[in-house]
């Protein structure tokens, strides 16, 4: 029997999120306010009068026509392992979104497929025969994920091509790096750092690096470092108003939803980073640093402070977000994988993003446009 789906209030949405240990920061109501070019709605699945699932859907209009791309990043928050996932949960969503004028629906099931421990990642990087993480036996395999993928395919969903092989592509990352915290004392987490990490943290401390929490008024300082990082690493930066909007929206919903950290040394800010929290899941969101005085290791210092604060908040996982799945020495993202795995992080593969074309012509046109960007 299908569940009933309807628009719910912000309060209902947040109350449901509060009952879950881990919900993506992109599936809370405030995230819709971060994306002004999208129209956001909170959806609720009801079994009778009981709310049993929620989702934040973002609707992006096509120019000149009243048709929308519907996107549920890292969501919705439903029972992904239900045998009747498609009929009971997803078909009501598709029917509603089609009625809203959606021509295509994209979602990101928060379903883990495989995990590689930090030691396994280190060994994989050192193995000349391994070109991608998939070439290496995982430390843990989640067999139920295959069933979810099979039900989606039979239900007409298609795995999105973008991100199928790479941790960095359009949409949200398929591969991430996470440090498991659950039940571990901070000393154990520290001992899980590799020698280089521990050495760099000591070096930063001896050099007098001080990591402090910042506020809205410090976002321009963060942004100056972020713009420098973008130029150095050759990516297009988001504008400062994006981060100001994110701070205002997320902290209004929960004062601890977003934090800003700044690493000071001799009166100069050398690094900055943002941290997001929903329930017991904590994310390192954006990082920025200058090329000046890198020898005092401000990046390791700022990460360790955030990890320590996340542990104090009762985090079950500290999420470094996206990584590449390539192990090629020529790939400039391999250094980022080394850095994150060095913190004791395990590589985690998710099921990836999935599309349902409600209008195949418009869906193909969108894919063509995205491929040419």
Describe the model.
- This is Peptidoglycan bridge formation glycyltransferase FemA/FemB family protein.
- The protein has 373 residues and is α+β, with helices and mostly antiparallel strands.
- The protein has 2 domains: 4-108 and 353-372, Aminopeptidase, CATH 3.40.630.30; 114-125 and 128-139 and 176-350, Gcn5-related N-acetyltransferase (GNAT) (Aminopeptidase, 3-Layer(aba) Sandwich).
- 36% of the residues lie in helices and 27% in strands.
- Residues 162-169 have low confidence and may be disordered.
What key attributes describe this structure?
373 residues, 27% strand, Aminopeptidase, 12 helices, 2 domains, globular, 16 strands, nine-stranded mixed sheet, alpha+beta
Give me a quick take on this structure.
With 373 residues, the chain is of the alpha+beta class.
Proportion in β-strands: 25-35%
**How many angstroms separate the termini?**
42 Å
The biggest sheet amounts to: 9 strands, mixed
Could you estimate the helical fraction of the residues in percent?
25-40%
| Secondary-structure class | alpha+beta
How many domains, in number, for the residues?
A: 2
CATH class of the largest domain: Alpha Beta
Beta strands, count: 16
Strand order of the largest sheet: 7-6-15-9-14-13-12-11-10
Please state the CA-atom Rg, rounded to the nearest Å: 21 Å
CATH T-level topology of the largest domain? Aminopeptidase
Mean pLDDT across the residues is 92
GO biological process, one term: regulation of cell shape
Family: Belongs to the FemABX family.
GO molecular function: aminoacyltransferase activity
Protein name: Peptidoglycan bridge formation glycyltransferase FemA/FemB family protein
